[in-house]
Give the backbone structure.
Amino acid sequence: MITLCHIDDIEEGKTRGFELSGLSVIALKKDGVIFLYENRCPHLGLNLEFQPDDFLNYDETYIQCSTHGAMFTLNSGECVLGPCKGESLQAISYTLFDDQIMLTEPLPSSAAS
């Protein structure tokens, strides 16, 4: 397992980006629940953020791709608007251990072995 961060390092209603082991990760906390996705739009495979840690649309209700404006739900990563509608962000499995977010195998295939 790979340690991502402490659970309190992600603020409620906010996103953070992480780069580790060849994997770019979006972490967000909504209603106390952590969601992790690969930072990769299913449309063109590009990173999603506008600026570091800035993945959300203006009213913070969707993850938004900065390239073509695709909108992804926070709790499932499904694209509901944009060129990849119906596709989803790649969710990343994790477990909590001593309040540390630990990525579990298998990691998305874009991660370095």
Observations:
- The longest strand covers residues 23-30.
- The chain has one domain: 2-103.
- The beta strands are 2-6, 15-20, 23-30, 33-38, 62-64, 71-73, 79-81, 94-97, 100-103.
- The radius of gyration is 13 Å.
